[in-house]
Amino acid sequence: MAATAEGTELETSLLSFEKLDRASPDLWPEQLPGVAEFAASFKSPIASSPPKWMADLENEDIEMLRELGSLTITNLMEKVRGLQNLAYQLGLEESREMTRGKFLNILEKVKK
Length: 112
Description:
112 residues, DREAM_LIN52, Protein lin-52 homolog, 58% helix, mainly alpha
């Protein structure tokens, strides 16, 4: 019971009865230039026309973007690690093929 009384006293001591006048320029300064336009661009629906960067995307690309956008941070990091491992394996395979090409003398330049 004593803990509940102390908790209630703590809660009442944390209450603030201060009234904020929202018209005050000191408390609510003007927005930074460009912020209002940036915020307004996200409020409008994208029904009018797709952005320039989406014009060259195919349906497969858009589906991949949606899939990546739905991943959690952990899943996205796993996906990136998988791509890094795949790139590393591709580099190893390319190195082996280049070495093989050198041994077979198929990469020599033709002398004129």
